[in-house]
Design brief:
The protein is of the alpha/beta class. Helix content is about 35%, strand content about 15%. It starts with a helix and ends in an 18-residue tail after the last strand.
Length: about 400
């Protein structure tokens, strides 16, 4: 500790006293200068042995560091970091350490791994960060308690922009299903959710943004899309996040950045089918091989299987849907849509281009022309085109004039 508290002036005073011709009362000198006798003899011994150079401050680094990270560990850390970067995965200290542990390599703590990466220029100095207490985070308590649905754009090798649709479990971060489509549309979204539910069961809640492909709540109070109708029949609560508030769906948004980084490290896909294979490969590794730092550094698959799944609520009452439509002239028999679900019915050629009002509650439908009811039915969910009830065969043709 002497080098930290003894000024250079005092060190020179000790040297002058040591080399002077007159004897020195060491005890009195030390009391006068406010130092210990041990400090006096240390600097006198250094001055007599090394001259003025012996009075300069010395390094406090120990002569040996038996607990220092060995060269083999340093090499393993750097090699794993470069490998993760090349493959497009997160390559921070925690990710590097987790992958080394999975490979059976003995590695030091997270902080030591970070220090090794920083010393070798692999990571940048972290800026000052917000305290964890400043974040308000939420997470579903059980698997299937809430799913997050979203889409992201991706360009193929020829520049064609397509959409990657994906649904993720909020509790475990498990990627439940993915679908590459031409665009973010309702038909592919429903096919994606059906695939996820076949593999993992139904969720209690589905969270997503206000895309028209997912919900019509931003379009009007009484708008009900096919997807909303299907989810209500299954008892799945549909939640739409607030506009311009991406933090609500933050888990899904964060996963998109990891996917794009991984895809950037691979050759661009030439077709939708090829991009689908890449996305599925990423999802398989993400779910089963990559420890997730947000869930205790276990894989999403491990956390998803650790607890019983949540159950959806009983099916909610479906709203009454009323809309005015013109009977399509595209079909001579006069076809009219019946609202959510994509169901249609044929009214007959005499109604082509007529304006009708369709009132539907759940599966019960009434069709009005003005104040008159022209058709009532109960929809058969197994059929898209409902039976018309019209007589078979061509309608009778009027006779030419002059003939009876």
């Amino acid at each position: 500790m002497a080098d930290l508290v003894v000024s250079m002036e005092l060190r020179f005073a000790v040297a002058f006293a040591a080399c002077g011709g007159c004897p020195v009362n060491v005890a009195a000198f030390c009391r006068e200068q406010g130092i210990s006798r041990q400090t006096f003899y240390v600097y006198r011994r250094r001055f007599l042995a090394e001259g003025v150079q012996g009075l300069l401050p010395r390094s406090r680094r120990p002569g040996s560091t038996p607990s220092a990270t060995g060269p083999e560990q340093v090499a393993a850390v750097l090699a794993m970091h470069d490998q993760l970067r090349e493959q497009g995965w997160d390559a921070g200290a925690r990710s590097v350490r987790d992958r080394l542990l999975l490979a059976g390599v003995a590695v030091p703590s997270d902080r030591t791994v970070h220090r090794v990466l920083a010393e070798h220029g692999r990571v940048k100095a972290s800026p000052k960060k917000r305290t964890r207490a400043s974040y308000r985070r939420f997470e579903a308590a059980t698997p299937n308690g809430m799913w997050q649905l979203d889409g992201t754009k991706r360009a193929l090798a020829d520049g064609t922009v397509v959409c990657v649709l994906r649904v993720q479990d909020d509790h475990s971060r498990l990627l439940l299903a993915s679908r590459v489509a031409d665009s973010e549309n309702m038909a592919d979204t429903w096919a994606l959710l059906q695939d996820a539910m076949r593999q993992h069961g139904r969720p209690a809640m589905l969270l997503h943004d206000g895309s028209i492909a997912f919900s019509a709540v931003r379009q009007g109070r009484h708008q009900v899309t096919d997807l909303q109708w299907h989810l209500r029949r299954l008892g799945i609560l549909q939640v739409v996040s607030s506009p311009h508030h991406p933090q609500t769906c933050g888990k899904k948004e964060r996963e998109w950045s990891a996917l794009h980084r991984w895809l950037d490290a691979h050759p661009d896909a030439a077709t939708i089918a090829e991009l689908q294979r890449l996305v599925d490969t990423y999802a398989a590794f993400f779910n089963t091989e990559r420890p997730h730092q947000g869930i205790g550094r276990v894989t999403p698959s491990q956390r998803y299987r650790a607890q019983p799944k949540a159950e959806p609520l009983p099916a909610t009452e479906l709203p009454t849907v009323t809309f005015v439509d013109e009977v399509s002239a595209k079909y001579p028999a006069g076809r009219v849509p019946l609202g959510p679900g994509g169901y249609t019915i044929t009214l007959g050629h005499q109604w082509v281009a007529a304006t009708v009002t369709v009132v539907r509650h759940d599966l019960d439908v009434a069709i009005f022309h003005g104040p008159d009811i022209i058709r009532t039915l109960r929809i058969d969910p197994s059929r898209q085109r409902q039976p018309s009830g019209l007589p078979l065969g061509r309608p009778p043709q009027p006779l030419p004039s002059g003939m009876s």
